[in-house]
Design the sequence.
């Protein structure tokens, strides 16, 4: 059987995608199950670029969660920006999101999540890009820097930049 997440031919085992009430069951290879529970190897998840388009909501949820979890990789952030989930499926994905103890908060103390839209509250000089991101600029679909609660990433004027959370507010 082919694993619906990593696309390898391997024996697959039942895996429950929680939390309830949305829970669904899928058949995954042992490597995927181990990496979901433990430390993921980014190279193993490269197949998500094709498998994330599955019509099975449980597979979409797992793909989103792994891409979100590996968001320190450039390629996963790009895939997250492309992946569309309907509102119910996205809520299900976010309900089981992996949190490594790092909580990102905006200038007002509001918790930030991957995919949020924020607004800059200060003009920011973007080093190396030659422009200033103006106060009031909207930054859609942010990514969280996994190991630093003070940093997020987003696109401003077509450039992907790192932004300090103290200079943004959630919309």
Sequence:
């Amino acid at each position: 059987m082919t694993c619906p997440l990593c696309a390898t031919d391997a024996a697959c085992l039942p895996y429950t995608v929680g939390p309830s009430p949305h829970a669904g069951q899928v058949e995954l290879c042992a490597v995927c199950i181990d990496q979901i529970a433990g430390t993921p190897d980014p190279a193993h998840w490269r197949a998500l670029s094709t498998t994330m388009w599955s019509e099975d909501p449980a597979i979409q949820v797992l793909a989103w969660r792994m891409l979100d979890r590996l968001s320190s990789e450039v390629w996963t952030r790009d895939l997250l920006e492309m992946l569309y989930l309907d509102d119910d499926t996205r809520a299900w994905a976010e309900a089981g999101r992996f949190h490594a103890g790092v909580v990102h908060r905006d200038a007002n103390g509001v918790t930030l999540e991957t995919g949020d839209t924020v607004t800059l509250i200060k003009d920011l000089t973007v080093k190396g890009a030659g422009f200033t991101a103006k106060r009031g600029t909207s930054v859609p679909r942010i990514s969280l820097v996994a190991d630093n609660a003070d940093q997020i990433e987003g696109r401003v004027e077509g450039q992907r930049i790192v932004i300090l959370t103290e200079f943004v507010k959630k919309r």
User: Anything to note?
Assistant: The chain has five helices and ten strands.
